[in-house]
Specification:
Blueprint lengths: L11 H37 L5 H13 L3 H16 L5 H27 L2 H9 L4 H30 L12 H12 L2 H30 L1 H5 L2
Helix pairs in contact: 1-2, 1-4, 1-7, 2-4, 3-4, 4-6, 5-6, 6-8, 7-8
GO molecular function, one term: transmembrane transporter activity
Keywords: Cell membrane, Membrane, Transmembrane, Transmembrane helix, Transport
Membrane topology: Multi-pass membrane protein
Length: 226
């Protein structure tokens, strides 16, 4: 019996499906990361500055997200919130919201460590020169914290990208969903998942290269100080 490997590439529809799935996974990860990072700055600022009411709420949120599985959060966002609030979104939008919430908690914890690493004397000196506390925090503390913690943020971002295959469970047509569909039609499981592995590794390496370039561009002083 003849053994023929990579048989799925003989069907252009399967190749197209994999490309579309990879694009969906990359897009949702990037958008979720940007939204989550913006929210993480607010969360970490509230905790770092010990804002009354906001700080305990931010702490509770971060601990809740970091101590529950992503799939539980995903199912709650996709099926629980629409039932409670009475709205209807496409599944990709539910996945984006769940990823953004998940990203924000992990990013917030990293940023909080970065904020604590900045000498408080710098913020106090800025305030003594007439800058408002929020302005001093934004111009003095935030850039240094992000620069110092950027490698950790990048690693966490790539790690979270590799967990996004879970969104296939709610029917989002991401890369994992595409692989599962092709496998169900061809029964070439080994071939399909080897292909998925190569694609996930390739996208991860692209993200790492992009993050490294952004780091050298935006934080050259941090690179020189290492």
């Amino acid at each position: 019996m003849e053994f023929r490997f990579f048989e799925i590439y003989r069907n252009w529809d399967y190749v197209t499906l994999l490309m579309q799935g990879a694009g969906m996974s990359a897009m949702l990860t990037l958008c979720g990361g940007v939204i989550g990072f913006a929210f993480a700055i607010v969360l970490s600022w509230a905790r770092h500055m010990q804002i009354r009411i906001a700080a305990p709420l931010a702490t509770a949120y971060v601990e809740f997200i970091r101590n529950t599985p992503l799939i539980v959060q995903l199912f709650f966002v996709a099926f629980g919130l629409p039932l409670l609030l009475g709205y209807a979104w496409p599944f990709w939008a539910h996945a984006l919201l769940a990823l953004a919430l998940n990203f924000s908690a992990y990013f917030a914890e990293i940023l909080r460590a970065g904020f604590r690493s900045v000498d408080t004397g710098q913020r106090e000196a800025a305030e003594a020169l007439g800058l408002r506390p929020i302005t001093a925090f934004r111009l003095i503390v935030v850039p240094q914290a992000i620069g110092r913690m950027f490698p950790s943020l990048s690693s966490q971002f790539v790690f979270l990208f590799l967990t996004t295959g879970i969104i296939a469970e709610i029917g989002v047509r991401d890369l994992t969903n595409a692989g599962m569909f092709i496998d169900s039609r061809t029964f070439r499981t080994f071939e399909v998942y080897i292909t998925l592995t190569v694609i996930y590794i390739s996208i991860s390496l692209l993200y790492k290269a992009a993050m490294a370039g952004l780091y050298r561009w935006r934080f050259p002083w941090a690179e020189l100080g290492r």
